[in-house]
Amino acid sequence: MTTMILSGKRQVVLPAELCRQVSLAPGTRVRVELAPNGEGILVRSASAGETKPASVLFDRVERRGKPLAVEDLQGLAVAKKQGKP
What we know:
alpha+beta
């Protein structure tokens, strides 16, 4: 658990690692509300259901196998459009 300091403007800075874990990127609108039991505060994305920026994927995808060249990726996209496996 990380301890933060509430500023004079009642602001806190959320740790980057925590934001990555819950997919909150810079500029994301958040909703803040009292926890149901009244013992804390919940911070949630205000845009539930929206697509998330690619930046939230960093450190979340495990790489396997050798990297593909751009040409290979384009070939896969064409094959998919043509209905080929």
